[in-house]
Design brief:
- The structure is a single chain.
- This protein is of the alpha/beta class.
- It folds into 2 domains: 122 residues, Trna Endonuclease, Chain: A, domain 1; 35 residues.
- A 5-stranded mixed sheet has the order 1-2-3-4-5, with helices on both faces. It has a 3-stranded antiparallel sheet with strand order 6-7-8.
- α1 crosses α6 and α4 runs parallel beside α5.
- The radius of gyration is 22 Å and the shape is globular.
């Protein structure tokens, strides 16, 4: 009887290890990556701060970044340039899935800014229609998983940002973003290097 019970518990343990072990490990790894990336702070940012964050991280990756005007962006929030590559980027800080309109916007931006390709970056996920259109239009889609990997690769995660903070450069009117230098943190213009305005925190 004891032997049968012991064998029964052993079978249950093996079943749980096989069926739930890998899944549990994957969930824990995803949770650890999520904490390391700070993507949950992104979830409570406003759209402007999300664009600033992406601009700063793309600069850290070696891109020249221009933030487009808020009132007439023609479908792109950021323009990335490196060597002969020019990318129109649409940033979508969403609580729901991102639909086909975001892809359509960036397709228009590719033509307007004469970009070589387009990209939509979100803290969420994409609808099947958005994925299908992007695949046929040379538009790269970065969903929540891709964003988390990018944030981890380009820094030590994201710190909470007060969504009420929307600072503007007094010289050119572009957004200011928090940066770090030899003398500590400061505000720098996103129009750099054309505009070199800085302001100590």
């Amino acid at each position: 009887m004891y032997g049968q019970t012991r064998n029964g518990w052993l079978s249950v343990a093996v079943f749980l290890a096989v069926d739930f072990g890998p899944g549990l490990l994957v969930r824990r790894m995803r949770s650890a990556r999520s904490r390391a990336s700070g993507v949950h702070h992104v979830d409570v940012m406003d759209g402007v701060n999300f664009e600033r964050l992406l601009a700063d991280r793309f600069r850290a990756s070696g891109w020249r970044v221009t933030m487009t005007p808020k009132d007439s962006d023609y479908g792109a929030d950021l323009i990335l340039e490196r060597r002969s590559d020019k990318v129109a980027v649409q940033a979508k800080r969403y609580t729901s899935t991102v639909g086909i309109s975001a892809v359509q916007q960036v397709i228009g931006a590719i033509h307007h800014y004469k970009a070589s390709r387009g990209m939509v970056v979100t803290n969420s996920h994409f609808t099947p229609n958005a994925i299908e259109l992007a695949a046929s239009a040379d538009v790269e889609l970065w969903d929540r998983d891709a964003l988390q990997a990018f944030l981890v690769d380009t820094g030590r995660g994201v710190e909470a940002v007060d969504p009420r903070e929307s600072r503007r450069c007094p010289r050119c009117g572009r957004s200011l973003i928090q940066r770090s230098g030899p003398r500590g943190q400061f505000w720098g213009c996103t129009g750099f290097p054309k505009c070199r305005y800085t302001e100590q925190k």
